[in-house]
Specification:
alpha+beta; 10 strands
Length: about 180
């Protein structure tokens, strides 16, 4: 009888301890519907819902963002947390193709914007893009130590070399509409 009571009491303590641990590690989880441009969907009636973002925030201010397509394939995962060893907030982002192969991985210093992004093919690094705060972007092929491209602007982002007013002037001068 005494052993049975001791067993029940021990079991009760163990269950309470497990519940307390779970509550101390409480996380908040939010699901956000995204369009093709990875912005939140405002009105679902337009058929713009292309992705789901699952955002999980830990009690220690860390967060995990996973983006899935509508076929439930992981598109990207970002883990943001404070890096105690180096003393800054970091974001580690992994992107995947539709077959779930890792195609790029990035480590970013959130505090100053510096990052290293590695592009992969068949799990082999084929190129990398580096940006150190207030310096140029540097793009490397393979394991080369000499940059192929060095630029003030991100060479992986589509950018125009003209002002929008020039573009509108060009369109006004060159577009011809049919006579009605």
């Amino acid at each position: 009888m005494k052993n049975k009571i001791h067993y029940k009491f021990s079991l009760l303590l163990l269950v309470n301890f497990c519940v307390a641990i779970n509550l101390s590690q409480a996380q908040e989880r939010v699901i956000i519907k995204l369009d093709g441009g990875m912005t939140p969907v405002v009105n679902e009636n337009f058929g713009t819902h292309k992705y789901n973002q699952i955002l999980t925030t830990g009690k220690d201010s860390s967060s995990i963002s996973k983006i899935y397509d509508l076929k439930n394939r992981l598109y990207s995962q970002t883990i943001e947390k404070y890096n105690e060893d180096l003393g800054y907030n970091e974001a580690i982002t992994s992107k995947y193709d539709t077959l779930q192969n890792l195609i790029s991985s990035e480590i970013k210093n959130v505090d100053n914007g510096s990052f290293i992004r590695v592009f992969l093919a068949d799990e082999i690094a084929v190129s990398r893009l580096e940006y150190i705060s207030n310096q140029n972007y540097k793009f490397y092929l393979g394991d080369s130590e000499t940059p192929l491209v060095e630029s003030e602007k991100d060479p992986m982002q589509l950018q125009t070399n003209y002002e929008m007013s020039e573009y509108h002037r060009f369109l006004a001068q060159n577009l011809r509409y049919p006579q009605q």
